[in-house]
Amino acid sequence: MRRAGLLGVLTAGLVTMFATISAWAEALPSFAANGTLTVCTNPTLPPMTFVNGAEASALAGFDVDLVREIAGVWNLRPDIVQMDFEGMFPSLSAGRCGMVISGVMRQATRERNFDAIPYYESSMVVIARTGTPKISSFSELSGQTVAIETGTSYGRLIDIENTALAAHGKPPIRVQLYPSEDQVIQQVLLGRAHAAMSQDVEVLYRRQQLGGKVTTIFKPDIPDFHDFAIYIRKDAVDKARLEHAVEELRRRGTLTALAHKWNIGDTLEETAPARGAPSRFDVQTFLSALTSRAFFKGAAMTLIMALLSHVTAIAISIPIALALNGRRSLIHPVLSAYVAVFRGAPTLLQLLFIWNALPQFLPVFRESWFTPFLAAWISLSINESAYQVEINRAALRAVDRGQSLAAEALGMKKSHVYWHIVFPQALRIALPPTINDFISLLKTTSLASVISLQELLAVTQIQVARTFQFTEYYSAALVWYLGIVFFFLYVQNRIERRFTWADRDKAAAHDA
């Protein structure tokens, strides 16, 4: 009887455990895969989401904490992916992440394609330098320049207002677009823009950071700009589960606690102490950035990406150049189209297509193996190979055809002719434009930040958004870029000296 009782208790316990596990599994949203909650964010909007330290991985802010709390409700591990603002929603559509949370307002236009779950009340504001007169409507910005972040919906509001202004014969509001919020506010401080559009939660943070140099001049009451929201792909069940998780955190008082932690409550705005913003070049900050691990890792990523992409491009371009320089065949139009398409299409468009559009056609590219590094490598290699084809074709054609004919007449194999006669001379001709192309590619790698690759410029922008010390961090990035470029210019010079013998003019002068 004891054994039977013990077996019964054990059976009941197992049933309860499996029922609990089953209920827990059913409560998880479909975008939670392998015990991980993947979230896209653009960490340039403090205090909602930003990098709080020298390392790019040191994410902080209200939204970052909220992601961790939601993951805790579901017993998942949070994986927060940093990327450019413009890349977040395409990445969400492609299944790169399950949620987007980055201080994004809930709006009807976005809800046509995504589900939005509000989590904190906010509003859009117009800010300007302290001392600028307040306004009571957008129409008072007629003829003025307003800075906004690329990818946000502020431009739509200005378009509507400009239509009304045109109907009354008034000059339109001029718009300047910038890739990040810190750059938007910098234009106001420099006087390039009369005002900027942002969220009210950012104003206090910027006032503290800049010593009270900016202030709110207009706070319109627009329904589409009342709430921050988490965005997910359209799914009624997932939406209900996420709403339940957010409501559970609200019931526990977690959202209120996070608001106090990050000082975004209305009652805290007047009592928060202001911090002075440095107005001169801070040598200590510059040196700290220059020698920081974050900048070293960013520069290493830039260099590795450029080297791998260029070597791959050369490997792709040589057989194509040989084929295009050879006898005309059926493959010629295909190869010519390849060169024309990838030379003509913008590099940024190619990056976004491979990262965001390709997974929609081929789901295999949604898997974790297809990383931003791999996507950038493929994109830049293909793009660069199209330019390298033309360099190699011109170099191969510049080698006197008579030398090849003479070598073949002496019985040399065609492969030996190319290896010992054609390629050494073509290399000497192709080397300067190839090195120049590589230097250009070094700078082009900065575009990969839109697909969350943490290269040098992306690291710089993140640190600028955190500190607002543009000059110091941009100067540090400039030193790193120049150091890399000058090194390769030195290598180019040394290689050119090594292959001087391949230059017929110099060889003739030496014999004389």
From TrEMBL:
SMART domains: PBPb. Keywords: Amino-acid transport, Cell membrane, Membrane, Transmembrane, Transmembrane helix, Transport. It comes from the Bacteria. The chain crosses the membrane at residues 299-323, 335-358, 473-491. It holds the Pfam family SBP_bac_3. Its main location: membrane. CDD domains: TM_PBP2. GO terms for biological process: amino acid transport. Residues 299-491 form the ABC transmembrane type-1 domain. This is Amino acid ABC transporter permease. It comes from Acetobacter nitrogenifigens DSM 23921 = NBRC 105050. The lineage of its organism: Bacteria, Pseudomonadati, Pseudomonadota, Alphaproteobacteria, Acetobacterales.
